[in-house]
# Entry
Amino acid sequence: MKVLFDSIFWFRWKMKETVSIFEFSLLNFVWFFFVLLNLKTLPIKLMKDFSPKIKLRKQFLVIF
# Structure
């Protein structure tokens, strides 16, 4: 999951150098939509990957 996000950030950073303002704003919109779609499932994935303790999971759920 983290690799996916890193690659998208890298791709956006590279695209910023080469595309026009309109195209980059379109790309930002697509990225924002992608984040919104994954927002519901992302905390669950992060909890499975990074928090072995139950206390951390409860705190993480409170944050989101």
